[in-house]
Amino acid sequence: MSPIPGTICLFDVDGTITESRQVIDNVTLQALREQSQKVSMGLVGGSDYAKAVEQLGGEANTDIFEYIFSENGLVARRRGEIIAQQNISKFLGEELVQKLINHCLGYMSKLELPVKRGTFIEYRSGMINVCPVGRSCSQAERKQFAAFDEEHKIREKFVADLKDKFADTQLSFAIGGEISIDVFPKGWDKTYCLRFLREFPTIHFFGDKTHPGGNDHEIYTSSRVIGHKVSGPEDTVKQLKELFP
Fold first, then answer.
1. What would the pLDDT profile of 175-194 be if each residue is shown by its tens digit?
2. SUPFAM superfamilies, alphabetically (predicted)?
3. Beta strands in the chain (DSSP E)
């Protein structure tokens, strides 16, 4: 079966086709593979390509998606080949990058959390990921921080501080996943990937962090996109099958 011409479905990763930072389950994987025979598909996540491959259960499963947009599309692949790549430090300049990192480390040093682990700053090609609990936390510690953050608004307050501190710059800040904050130049949110999809007049996007401040919000509300808010992988599959029975 040939995919519907001019139509593509884009999917966030964490909380949309997988549980946060987990490998996709077989039921969701099979459903996406079956639906990819009906409609073109793309992946658009905030993490780097290696993490996307890991969560898809290996390189062999990337063939489900015609496009894979890592780091919001700052690293763009079509059918496995890189078609574009941005670099945040070249764009912003090293002085601003270091000012941001130094401020974040200073802010996080004053936070009292249930636990703190390693890798509080992860430098990526198209963004800087800031993680108060540390990205090397265990799955149990991740869930513990997520619950603590829900109650105490750790990341929400952090973002408010960053917006105030860097108000005179071109930086944007978005809460992503369960434990981190994505920092990137204005316009480098998930709508960045849309520039590579001009051949598709109909674009559906499925994501869970669609609220203002969430890293799916801009693309979910884009005039070029039909947005679908989901509550998890099962809901994503349900809505996808209703759209393309």
1. 988 999 999 999 999 999 99
2. HAD-like (SSF56784)
3. 7-11, 40-44, 67-70, 75-78, 81-85, 121-123, 128-130, 171-176, 180-185, 202-207, 225-229
